[in-house]
## 1
Amino acid sequence: MNRSLPRNFLLVGDVRTELPKLPAASVDTCITSPPYFWLRNYEVADQIGVEGQVNLWVEELRLVLRGVARVLKPQGSVWLNVADSYSRHPRYGAPAKSLLLGPERLAVALAADGWIVRNRIAWTKPNPMPNSVTDRLNATWEFMYFLTRSPRYYFDLDAIRVPHRTAQRSDARADIEESPAPIRPSWAGPLAGSQGGLHRLKRSGIPGHPRGKNPGDHWSLATASFRGAHFATFPPRLVERPLLATCPERVCQRCGRAWERNRGLVGDEVTWRSACRCGAGWEPGVVLDPFFGAGTVGLVAEAQGRQWCGIELNPQFAAMAHQRLDAARLDRERGERRAA
Ligand SMILES: C[S@@+](CC[C@H](N)C(=O)[O-])C[C@H]1O[C@@H](n2cnc3c(N)ncnc32)[C@H](O)[C@@H]1O
């Protein structure tokens, strides 16, 4: 039940005091970018990211993620965008000039807490921040971890497939079963991935999945900024893909379980079925961002017909997020009036 979860609502305060106020098992997914270790000053007391040592930063985020685990529905997931910083002194946790390996340390700590690390996505930036450094390479990518609590979780791959490069047969059927086929070369180790589904498609004369291919774990997206915010905001497209894959379009109004889309032929009208026996209606799924900043997750959620809940420590950033959300709502209303 998620009756008392504030919807499309921003809680202004410290994530460590606000998150415990949210009901358990109430959000479908969490998409967030916490403060990185000593990379920005968010100009407010109690900010995360200014601890004395990188392992203390890891511990703070580990505790926040424990709180997120409590508010996630059992089939929920987390997308965590983090980047590394360079040490200036051994007291930060690594020799001066060394990467602190903060994202890696965090992932290991989260795995020890029971998180299942399903992906480590490289978000590469075609427009990285220029850097005057001359004795190493410029840092041009960041991590996006995809984490779940359970081996079975909500994931709508069809919603995020991308076009194939090779030509597609026009009569290709989309309802081909993607069962793990028993084709395993003799050299494959026990942890090697299965390509059985793809081999089956190829045998039926189809070069790839008729609905498009898996987007993979390397995303090239330009950075974004928002006038007024002196920190990097999420590029909306970095939020869109996680949201479409893991925040269900429809969930049961009573028990909160995701409805399922019926798989059919490519181009068929989408039909839905409830995965529970509640017999209740549906509502959109909810995405949480406990480090809301200027509110990009809320903006993308509303544009995609999902609900959101945010937490932000700095009241000025919270006001900025409200302004952005109000402006986007006005734009949409104007667009709808023009289209009517
Ligand atoms: C990387 S920014 C998030 C930007 C956001 N993704 C966007 O698109 O605008 C991190 C945010 O975390 C906030 N923050 C820092 N410490 C916090 C805390 N203890 N509780 C809640 N928010 C905090 C900062 O004020 C900042 O707005």
Note: Residues 14-15, 33, 35, 42, 46-48, 231, 233-234, 291, 293-294, 296, 311-314, 317 surround S-adenosylmethionine (CB under 6 Å).
## 2
Amino acid sequence: MTLHNEYTKFAACSCGRTHTLPDFQTVLGNQGLEAVPQYLKTHAVQRPLLVADPNTWAVLGEEVHRLLDDMGIAHDALVFEDTEPAADEDHLGQLMQGCLHRPDCLVSVASGTITDLVRYAAYLMTVPHVAVATAPSMDGYASSVAPLISKGHKITYLAKAPELIVGIPAILAAAPKKMIAAGFGDLMGKITAKADWLLSHYLHGEAHCAEIQALVDAAVADTIKLLEQTEDNDAEADQELLVTKIMEGLIHSGAAITLMGFSRPASGAEHHFSHYWEMQALRDGHTPELHGLKVGYATWIVLQIYEWIRQRRSEGQLSAPEAAAFDQATGFLPAAAAYAEMAHKAHVVLNPEGLGMDERQVRQAVREALYVRDRYTVLRLAESHNWLDALADEVNVRWLPEQTCTA
Ligand SMILES: [Zn+2]
Ligand SMILES: [Zn+2]
């Protein structure tokens, strides 16, 4: 399946705004790899550099390398030594040192971290970037920024989305379950991101675009519908459909950010939780857990916060404008319990321990995650009523599947 640039309809958007159109092409299909040499030939690329780590090289990198050899396309390859390279100065340096032959195109064969690094390097070097995805683990493939670690801090740098994104369903479906769960979790974060965006829109007049919202909404809804139809033990073909849908949704989320010009359509309080925990892990010298897994978990926490406030709203504790905005912004939200059940089915971890944290860190994040970004979310609404302490004490941090028999 080839998704041509389907974002052109946003050129004349009903919201009256001029959106920046994403200009990447996406190829999702089991024959998708052929798009790589095709792209290189069409664009007269002379000497691309393949970038991978030992795992992704084994999964797909070597195959790309052979394919280019067969097609007579001269190229170099940089395979990082570590299996989990960080997107930090060290690896950016290694990448630059690998550019000995002045590549005129960078081809990442990887999931999150390396794609982030290469997206940034390609932007700096003003060469095109072809991203071959090895796992549907995050929404950064189509992103126009790159989150990198600088002096131990995560900083978002300007970058450029790849010119071509390739996903092979059979490969994506064979990725570790945890990485697929992370991609699913990152996509589900758009549910609470939407409520936060609408809340800010109705309460503070922040710019909103219903058409971009609809693009993200459809990606989330389609994925949930497919998840509900797919069982863990289903045939490969069904699993491939599901990961393709997740990947497509993540790419649309990235496109939505480019269209809107800022990350609102894809990121709200659930992402602030994730950033908060990530900063903590970096500070303490731990390897942070996959971004999307934390987002998928935080989405459940934020849904609980919305429910808690809905209760106060029914008791008349919100001001009239707040209550009106709250009703308009949150009517679509699923119940936190229903979300947990669905997320659990997709292997999203719903307890702090499974994410390498403890309960205290979760409750602390309820109090403090709002300070991570200067952006209005449900956390700011709670803070303005001095509710964060109570929320921190009362949210359920550990979800247990319903027991079929009780002792
Ligand atoms: Zn619009
Ligand atoms: Zn995300």
Note: The domain at 177-394 is CATH 1.20.1090.10 (Dehydroquinate synthase-like, alpha domain).
## 3
Amino acid sequence: MISLQPDIPRVDAARAERAVIALDRALGGSKVLSAREARARCEAYARDESETAPQVPDGVVLATDSDDVVTCLRICEQHEVPVTPRGGGSGRTGGAVPVAGGVVLALEGMRGIKEIAREDLLVVVEPGVVLGDMMKAVEAEGLFYPVDPSSLGYCAVGGNVAENAGGPSAFKYGVTREYVLGCEAVLMGGTRLRAGRRTVKGVTGYDVVATMVGSEGTLAVFTELTLRLLPKPTAVRTLVALFSAVAHAGKCVSEIVARGLQPRCLELVDDGALVALRANGAAIDERASALLLIEIDGVGDLDPLLEQIGDACVSAGAIDVVVAQDEAQRARLWSARRELSPAVRRLCKSKLSEDVVVPRSKVAELLAACDRIRDEEQVRMLAYGHAGDGNLHVNFLWDHDDDLPRVDRAIERMFHATLALGGTLSGEHGIGVLKAPYLPLEQSPELIALQRRIKDAFDPKGLLNPGKIFLPGGAPHRAC
Ligand SMILES: Cc1cc2nc3c(=O)[nH]c(=O)nc-3n(C[C@H](O)[C@H](O)[C@H](O)COP(=O)(O)OP(=O)(O)OC[C@H]3O[C@@H](n4cnc5c(N)ncnc54)[C@H](O)[C@@H]3O)c2cc1C
């Protein structure tokens, strides 16, 4: 069952207020907002970019350095008050929504880029730096950070690490985890840890950094991140292949992979998503029912690779292949792609965007399963996303609350179809609140219990971002 309004008890209001007063005394009024005195400002921290029902926190700490984070986590643990870390608030699964009330720890004020080390190919940043700003800063030094979620203009690096974010270029470059070398993190209670390294290699002890990456703010709060960089590619080419049927586009993805070609991005837009693009002003050939946005990069002459990719598109049935001729055309294509999610949002009253992944060879089968589910459940569905990784954003759209049971059934059927194809429930958005009820569809009770024990080791009182990933109180899922 979709969990838009999770059943998580709110912390006792009087206890939360005592904690907020203690935080105010320790940090000063300019860094602490209290819902009693500044409710409107606290409301800005009640939601993220998901359909999770907003919850206004009892207080907000506006951290400007790691000492503030230590103080916040120490005082909140003393008062047994939950803390929800927050970066840019662009999460898709309710991770930054303070579902149990308590304190939101806002890291947007920690935006420093502390070091760009050209010889060591790394950057050291504070967690609140906006990803796009960090990318520009390293590119100015001839370096490259390749993980590029479509939200790069407003998501924060700490949020990316907490969600193990991906993006269009994951096809070639992988996801955030591959770039996190080390971090400073603070545990609930205020213990500061340094984990990881600045070196390329390093196998000392357990890989605690990898455990924290993707832990959705439930294990520790990142206060500094050391990220691996690459030399900046000197050439980039972008093309669009149009197809008369989404099945042909799906086949093209497999064709490109099977030929051993490695574009950096291989993005699919299906017919439903094309409706949103066209409504948003994009002029797309009316014959097209699907498109692939493909980008290649490297050093030197990319024409031979461009030609090979064009060939693969044509043999998969492309009706047209258009190559961007200059930077302005390329920017227009990417701007349309980045605007796709808000454009879909405007098509209906409510939408949920899932981000399932299947093995690359199964993309066409997943799309066919979605078609079947859409027809049988009579639900408005569309798909777009990182087809090269097998990672599709399947969107469910509805206008009336009484559509919800059918949407719910369609989502669960789509999850079952994904798992039957050897896939996984989330490629990049995480589990958060919205997908917590579905975790047991994919993971065994033993694996979930092991993860809960890891959570207990980091946060024995369960105060850091409660209600996320696991259903509260070890409640069994109806599928178990
Ligand atoms: C239009 C749009 C497009 C998107 N495209 C992509 C995409 O292509 N790929 C992709 O992967 N995602 C995408 N996303 C989702 C989202 O942008 C990512 O999940 C992003 O990584 C979230 O970063 P944030 O700073 O906004 O995190 P928030 O939403 O603030 O928080 C996300 C989670 O991280 C935790 N957190 C935040 N900061 C810290 C910290 N310093 N320490 C510990 N935990 C922390 C929070 O508690 C929460 O659980 C998209 C979102 C939108 C709205």
Note: The longest helix spans residues 404-420.
